[in-house]
Amino acid sequence: xxxxxxxxxxxxxxxxxxxxxxxxxxxxxxxxxxxxxxxxxxxxxxxxxxxxxxxxxxxxxxxxxxxxxxxxxxxxxxxxxxxxxxxxxxxxxxxxxxxxxxxxxxxxxxxxxxxxxxxxxxxxxxxxxxxxxxxxxxxxxxxxxxxxxxxxxxxxxxxxxxxxxxxxxxxxxxxxxxxxxxxxxxxxxxxxxxxxxxxxxxxxxxxxxxxxxxxxxxxxxxxxxxxxxxxxxxxxxxxxxxxxxxxxxxxxxxxxxxxxxxxxxxxxxxxxxxxxxxxxxxxxxxxxxxxxxxxxxxxxxxxxxxxx
Length: 308
What we know:
By secondary structure, the chain is mainly alpha-helical. Helix content is about 70%, strand content about 0%. The chain is built from 19 helices and no strands.
């Protein structure tokens, strides 16, 4: 996965993996979590993978398995997902969203709506390698109706050339029908680039005289209403959507978003969170859930538990 430059976790300068491994070994012996948190949250993912390799070569032990013996609770879950390569982590989140009774539709949508077609193809490949199952088939089995069609189209997201005015007219016609048809929304919103789609949505609002999201909420119901509104939010302002997700302060969501975006665009999400709530993300985590004592991911100035 290709990371951006607005992350809060950067490559640690003066990286010395052998020294890190020695300090981790000492922390393990003392069952002292503080050095583990300090080291693993201040190294980027590539550096963590290097540490894990050297740890295995040095001790003949799997670092993830050892972490599971020493840590517990939310901190254990966080450290384990930090040790996953980025694509595997996204695949793991999708697997967890579809595991057990019921489906976490919004986590599915969060990942599928905020990732590009290329990223989703890579994530699908990682899912198949990790779960030995096809992501599209699994998603079909967990969803139904128009919502299933939307999810499958998102997994297979592509950029197809289109005409802005024609797309506006297609979506406007859907809204003007007595019973709105989801098909043109699914087709257009999952097959155009973001620049094109923002022009379409702006034009639609001008021509209809209504904001898109309230119009969708009025015309659709159930899962497809959730899916289309989340998709529009992510097209118009993905940082604001992710910041809104964080305001709920649910541990799996906070962990998932912060780990997924820590090397990519967490700075932008933090700005959106501050604008939305009037409080910094770091302060909210520290005061509300004491998360800042467990991870530096949201303050580097710059779920079920995973298996080993």
